[in-house]
Amino acid sequence: MSLGQLICENVCIAKKRPRLKSGQVILIQVDSIVIRSAKPFLATPGATVHGHYGEILYEGQTLVTFIYEKSRSGDITQGLPKVEQVLEVRSIDSISMNLEKRVEVWNECITRILGIPWGFLIGAELTIVQSRISLVNKIQKVYRSQGVHIHNRHIEIIVRQITSKVLVSEDGMSNVFSPGELIGLLRAERMGRALEEAICYRAVLLGITRASLNTQSFISEASFQETARVLAKAALRGRIDWLKGARYFVTPQKLI
Fold it and tell me: d(Cα 109, Cα 124) in Å, to the nearest integer?
């Protein structure tokens, strides 16, 4: 130890205990050391230090100016096409590949622990949840790259809507739904618990436009787009709209 040496906090200078504060050695004696307490301010290479050695700096003065580089993107409109591709399910290859790997690991581990059929059931639930999380993260990545911060709950509402449908497969023995029919996930789960025969289905990503055109309300579908086609299809099927929700108080304006 030498005169003028700087000592950081929590550095052992004695055998009993480390020093709790930082400072500079100003006096060395046979049985003692005098240290002037000081607080260090660290700077990165290339930073500009305001002031010189021994100069007194008063409160409020700038001590150090840090210089760093940060990539800056353009307007948020540059990122909107990427968000549209995700929400319209036009570029989901990376998400699908990641989910396939995770599903294999989940099904293997969960089935080994819980057995059949609980392992497959819980693995399917985790697959749907993880797909929604991956979509939210992918959309947030685009917005944050443009410097826009949006709370997750706003995106989660949209993601929940585009992942709320399942496609009935031909493997099931139930006659309730036709193969290839799109039904709600919650409805499929309720019907599966109520019926003795199993309903086989797989989760699908619809996209905003297709999800808006596949709802329980044909008035909601007609108010979005393709009004003539939606109303003609609803008339041929004899669909009934029970007008549930607040939007139906403002949707009907005049006779079509």
Answer: 13
Contact status, residue 7 vs residue 22, Cβ threshold 8 Å: yes
Cα–Cα dist 162/80, whole Å: 18
**In whole angstroms, what is the distance from residue 89 CA to residue 67 CA?**
41
The reply to whether 192 and 220 lie within a common domain is: no
Report CA 41 to chain centroid distance, whole Å. 36
Mean pLDDT, consecutive 10-residue stretches, the chain (256 aa), reads 77 66 81 80 82 80 80 58 69 53 60 60 72 84 82 87 80 67 80 76 76 73 78 85 65 55
Alpha helices, DSSP H, located in the chain: 80-87, 93-114, 118-145, 152-162, 185-194, 208-212, 218-222, 227-237
Neighbouring-strand partners of residue 184: 165
158 with 89, same domain: the answer is yes
CA-to-CA dists, residue 176 to 188, 194, 239, 246, angstroms: 10, 12, 17, 31
CA distance 26 to 34: 6
Bridge partners (DSSP) listed for residue 203: 166
**Token duo for residue 229:** 């086609």
State the residue range of the domain holding 15. 1-41
Does the predicted TM-score (pTM) go above 0.85? Answer: no
